[in-house]
Amino acid sequence: MGVLPGKLRGGVRSLRGWSRPPYDFPVNTEERARLIQQYRDGYREVTEALEGITDDELDRSVEGDWTPRQIAHHLADSEMMSAIRIRRLLAEPDPVIYGYDEKAFAERLTSDRPIAQSLEAMRWARETCAQLLDRMTEADWRIVGTHTESGRYGTEDWLKIYAAHAHDHAGQIARARGRS
User: Fold this and answer.
1) Element (H, E) at 151
2) Has residue 105 got a pLDDT over 80?
3) In this predicted structure, what is the pLDDT of residue 25?
4) How far is CA 32 from the centre of its chain?
5) Pairing of strands 96-97, 151-154
6) pLDDT: is 95 or 10 the higher one?
7) Which of 67, 69, 71, 154 is the most exposed place for a label (fewest CB within 10 A)?
């Protein structure tokens, strides 16, 4: 997987401001299987990055990045959004995929809430999406809709983005904890 332009918050990737999705090439069956496995491993990697975290560490950031607490809540928000996105792509004709202001979500909705429930929301959103991924046909992998911020956006774009998303944030958590 290549490096994406438009880094945000400590190397975490973002679609905001792009005129088209970052990946505009077809995925072969082997690469798709690898991406699906990477997607499945995302929750585990995040929980491992958070293992043994202290209250002080939850609210510590590095160089203006989000704190681990904000990241955990962002992952819940993002995974719930992504679950709706893949469902819209699969179920609706000419789907429109809506962007959201992730920065506002992180600033307004995360300050002191415990993270356990958000991690469970992330877990179950990913589990249900993985079930859908396992059942998708070749025709399903060619579905394309329109993202309100980035334009053309298909099921393969969705997979490429969300396969990396949790791993990117697990690395951000490790950096906040001084472990990378």
Assistant:
1) strand 151-154
2) yes
3) 58
4) 17
5) unpaired
6) 95
7) 67
* Tokens 């920065």 -> residue: 103
32-38's contacts with Cβ under 8 Å and 24+ in sequence apart are 32/141, 32/156, 32/159, 35/159, 35/160, 35/163, 36/130, 36/133, 36/134, 36/159, 36/163, 38/163, 38/164, 38/167
In the chain the domains, ranked by start, together with CATH numbers, are 27-176 (1.20.120.450)
| Model pLDDT, residue 179 | 83
Find tokens 């490790």 and name the residue.
Answer: 174
Can you tell me the distance from the alpha carbon of 168 to that of 158, in angstroms, rounded to the nearest whole number?
A: 15
| Owner of token pair 């585990």 | 44
The continuous run of DSSP H or E covering 76 comes out as: helix 68-91
